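Lay summary. Proteins are chains of building blocks that fold into shapes, and those shapes determine what they do. In this project we predict the shape from the chain. Here is one chain we studied, written as its sequence of building blocks.
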Amino acid sequence: MNPFHYERAQDVASAVALMARTPRGAFLAGGTNLVDLMKLGVATPDTLIDIRRVTSDRIEELPDGGLRIGAAVPNSDLAANRTVRQRYPVLAQALLSGASGQLRNLATTGGNLLQRTRCVYFQDVTTPCNKREARSGCPARDNGYNRELAIFGTSDACVATHPSDMAVALASLDAVVHAYGQNGERTIPLTALHRLPESTPERDTVLEHGELIMAIDIPPLSFGTNSRYRKVRDRASYAFALVSVAAALDVVDGVVRDVRIALGGVAPKPWRATKAEKMLRGAPATEHHFRAAAEAELVDARPLSGNAFKIPLARNVMTSMLLDLAKEAQ
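And here is the predicted shape, written in a compact code that computers can read:
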């Protein structure tokens, strides 16, 4: 690990100001991903600015019936929160499937959203990787090891996936991110927070250098109680998703009144299944229609040499998940 300077910020404004003076600095909260990357030599910040005590660690109900989650809320606290478990079970389930209890105790809500890919080429500094070093190459795309990588949203420069389970659940719930930077506050829909790689895969999100996630809002969702997260992985013991599905379903008299679906493990960002949602609204809540909607969403998938299996896997998981939710709704 390279030597670095450590600063503990006293408040949000000072954290942002400190980062503005350190072009190679990084914010430190739980450190469950950043410290690992520093040990591997992937991340080499010259300054760490500790923000654990300057952002909120509270979960608050909003006047409109939604929920505000402070960026410093530990993943364990969020997963165990009674309101989350009752109103948004998809979020609690995603968090519980994402990491061991020890990691959830340290990992924060804001940090979870900013995890970096687990692509083997990104984590191996002896190999080229456009996300780690711009314009160095992408071995995964050139018939390298790509079994776990993306089938949506890729570019010639990068085919990595985003690893967060929590982010997939929040994408399905229309969550909104509150950020603070040198230009003040702004809100970002969670579905717009993460960038597709295009020609600049080294930029994971739309956040500017020094911009800090403050909180995440989940809007009220009347059928959020009928939501689930399902994750397919190589082993049951906290592996990253090959394919995951977060969904909420509202069915009245056998017809889909509304639906939310997001996919994980298939794209460089949580993938909102808008085509499938549009096709399902107003359709009968049957296996035939669920499967047809899944196929419509997957028609644009572009698999690599080693991950074409993700297409039928995603179709089957989406279909079975929606069938289970339809039964729960009756």
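What the prediction tells us: The mean pLDDT is 96.
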